[in-house]
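Usage example:
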Amino acid sequence: MTHLPEMRLLPLHAIAHGRAGDKGNVSNVSLVAYQPEAFPFLKNHVTADKVHKLYTHLGASGVIRYDLPLISAFNFVINDVLDGGVNASRSIDRHGKTLSYILLSRFITDIPTELIPEGSPYLDPNFCWQGF
Amino acid sequence: MELSVYPNQQLLTGLTAQNLHVLIDPMTIEKIKSMSKRVFIAGGAGFSGDRFDAAVPLVTHLANCDGPRYLIFEVLAERTIALAQAAKTMDPQAGYSPYLEAYLRPVIEQIEKHNIKIVSNMGAANPLAAAKHINRLADEFGLPPFKIAVLSGDDLSAYLDEQTLLGAPTMEGNRLAGRDLKAANVYLGGDAVAKALAMDVDIVLVGRTTDSALVLGPLLHEFGWADNDWDKLAAGTICGHLLECGAQVTGAYFADPGFKDVPALAEVGFPVAEVSKSGDFVITKPENTGGCVTTATVTEQLLYEMHDPNNYIVPDVCVDVSGLYLTEDGVNRILVKGIKGRPRPTQLKATVCVDGGFMAEAELSYAGMNSLARAKLAADIVLERMKKSGFNGEIRRDIIGAFSVLDGGNEPVGQENNLPFDGDYRVRLSLISAEHETAQRLCDELQHLYCSGPAAGGGYRSSVTPQMASASILLNRTLIEPHIAVEVIDG
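Running the assembly step on the lines above writes:
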């Protein structure tokens, strides 16, 4: 019998974490699976093109994804997204340090619940962010 | 059999350098000791405003480590050196970290007592003055003067003319020609830091090096790795990369309550690396400190400010972390292995800073019924008046609480009805202009709304700050290397 995993519409925040770094006008956002089992799922679904769309309103001109299967992580390099970079930006957040949470919050997709780490509030089927 | 240098694995094999002497002759023991030599490096600060007391537990920890001990302080951001350069122009005794004393005062006695070497870029644009300051501090504590090496060669304005610097093609594509040069510094590597340590000093002060060079330098000095032993140079670089941001590898900048919990962040322990001659290393932190060291914290920091993981370029080597893997080596201990390196680049990167005009930022709050509409009206009024005054540039409008950092100040399309109409919002307007007057006008216009704007605007704050524009250029290393020099201050 084929095992069909239970799916729920959730943000990537349910199964991954990450951090944004800056160099010039380029931001890199890492995406790290809480569980190695989530790596193939993320690899199939979180493409550079889809990530680019999440950052176009900030001026992103292109995204390159690098895969690091040994540490269950990806590195998204997002070009031209920092309003000229830390010394030119008029943003409150000139480094773009908050930008990792665009990927974690706004990439919403059907996620197999078995990829959610133990102890996560997302495991509770009634868990719901206000307005989500 | 591979002789492990890591305690837990030693327990498994039952073999340590100490108990081997019953079996093996002294020559072999020396060899094994040298093989199992570990260098301990602690990261005491990750940026110029990092915690001043963070190094205290590190120094206590290092005092109990059996091997060479180093404490690094990384406090020099890209533009900090340009600001320091400006400070030095005003006062020849200034131009180094204003926090030098704040960082060193709590640990100066212990570093002297336990022979812990300091490697830091606190020197910024004036490492010589910084060195003198340290020895004044030592004198105040009744300590003998430290022997301090000062590394120079990063300041390009000392040996390249302004036209060469401003005329070079920039990596970002922007043009610098015709602008007022503030600073130009090339990133030196770990080899230069090792050269300074070779002078048998207690402290090394550098200006601009790569942050990771503060760690690679001591490792090159202690292990004598060949300058083409690429895998080891790469491992030392990544070790530095993991330490350079202080507690960002030990659970800070990581906590997401309920999802990624971190214990006792108020007392977060800063990182310590235990490095073996093979280049493998463990990242850990002192006992009885907060934070945590896990594969997750190390992974986040590994990729921080990294672009291509297969080709992370520093002056000493091109690093490939695609084969890097992490294993737990006890509680709050992560063993890092599998780092590869390729030959170093022929060119070195430099940051050129020029005058960048002025940035204006002004804010005003609106809250309660219909606050979003009132906040938007306030912004519209200022934008209209700026336009009428002849300003044609771009003004960024954020409404904090509605759309700001994640939205580029733009209202997300289709989200109008999802924002609370009675929220607590703060209008923020900002621009960058070559003219101080224009920047000040934006602030004034928002302030005018106290009496001349929508209902109930409050909490006006503003600032106009001089800006530094920067760009990166590449220079052949042959142009730089003859200028790298070490000066020793002893007393």
